[in-house]
Amino acid sequence: MKKVVLLFLFALFILLPSLKANPPDGSWFTSYTKAAETAKEKNLPIFVFFTGSDWCPVCKEFTAKVLQSQKFREYVKNRVVLLYIDRPRDLQLPDWLERQNQLLEAKYGIEGFPTVLLLTADGEVLDTLGYSPRADFVDMLNAALHPMAEKDYKPLAGWQVNYQQALKLAEEKKLPIIMVFNGSDWNTGLNKFQKDTLAGKEFEEFAAGKAILLYIDFPRGIRIPRSIVRQNIELLNQYKFKTLPMTYVLNPEGKVLGEVKDVLETNEYISQLKKILDRK
After folding, report:
1. How many CB atoms lie within 10 A of CB 236?
2. Which of 5, 19, 188, 212 holds its CA 20 to 30 A away from the CA of 219?
3. Gap between the Cα atoms of 156 and 159, Å rounded
4. Tell me, what's the pLDDT at 108?
5. Which pLDDT value is given to residue 18?
6. 6 vs 270, residue with greater confidence
7. From start to end of 15-149, where are the E strands?
8. Predicted pLDDT at 11
9. Which helix (H) or strand (E) holds 258?
């Protein structure tokens, strides 16, 4: 009898890890092929969740607080096809599933977990989403599925958000460009810099007639047009800055004339910009 019990416990021990590797509920696919077929049939995008189910604490939190919530389940119904891609460290997946998940991780360049991709039925990336406990994920998903038009994106009055349009305007008016990189919703300091300095009357009066203003934002919880997201990432790679906020003064060809780093008091920020503009 004792031998039977031990065998049962051993079998249970073997089976439990595979149970933990299951998707959040039965509405998820684990096969990319089947998810893509369903997406084509229903004309829906694919919601792909990349996770490390047995080692990633944030993935576990995201699953419990968001993906298994009633709000999420009701929202995604008939809006997306759900695909679960697990990259566990200790749990054993079937060979075909392990190969598939490894290939998908490499194909889409996944660098951190959890990551959510929205794909077309043909596998084209529509958007990339992350998880923040401070943001409402369902609101973020809704915004991603109904992207804002570029013409409606106006984070700061009087500021351009399109780099090429700013260059064109600078050439027409023979003015330099003040280009600010910010993360408007990351923390109090960056948000205060946007509201009190960049949107303040003192800065508005200083910049009037002196420069074209270009705002490049990298928010975490606020959705912005996909075209602007792609542009901002390209500018990040082009200018290779390592701190936010970061301000560059450019000539109409995009050449850097000077820079101002970090959050400064408004008068000091304006003073440093004035020195750069006076040298041009």
Report:
1. 14
2. 212
3. 6
4. 96
5. 41
6. 270
7. 46-51, 81-86, 115-119, 125-129
8. 43
9. strand 256-261
Contact 268, 259 (CB under 8 A): no
Q: Identity (one letter) of the amino acid at 254?
A: G
> Side chain identity at 56, as an amino acid letter?
C
Q: Hey, which residues does 215 pair with through a beta bridge?
A: 180
Decide if 81 contacts 42 (C-beta within 8 A). Answer: yes
Per residue in 63-102, pLDDT tens? 999 999 999 999 999 999 999 999 999 999 999 999 999 9
Structure tokens at 22: 């299951």
**Inter-residue contact 277 to 270 (CB < 8 Å):** no
Is pLDDT above 80 for 221? no
Confidence class for position 12, pLDDT limits 50, 70, 90: very low
> What is the spatial distance between Cα 51 and Cα 45, in angstroms, rounded to a whole number?
19
Residue in 129, 111, 133 with CA at minimum distance from that of residue 60: 133
**Sign, CA torsion 137/138/143/146:** positive
140-151 core/surface letters (b: 16 or more CB in 10 A; e: else): bbebbbebbebe
Residues 141 and 119: their CA atoms lie apart, in Å, by 13
What is the pTM (predicted TM-score) of this model?
Answer: 0.61
What is the largest distance, in Å, between two alpha-carbon atoms of the chain?
91
173 membership: H or E segment, kind and range: helix 163-173
| Residue 194 pLDDT exceeds 60 | yes
With a CB cutoff of 8 Å and minimum separation 6, the contacts of 202 are: 266, 267, 270
Contact 131, 114 (CB under 8 A): yes
- Rounded to the nearest 5 degrees, what angle is found at the Cα of 145, between the Cα atoms of 143 and 146? 60
Name residue, tokens 């995009």: 254
Find where tokens 């023979």 sit.
Answer: 174
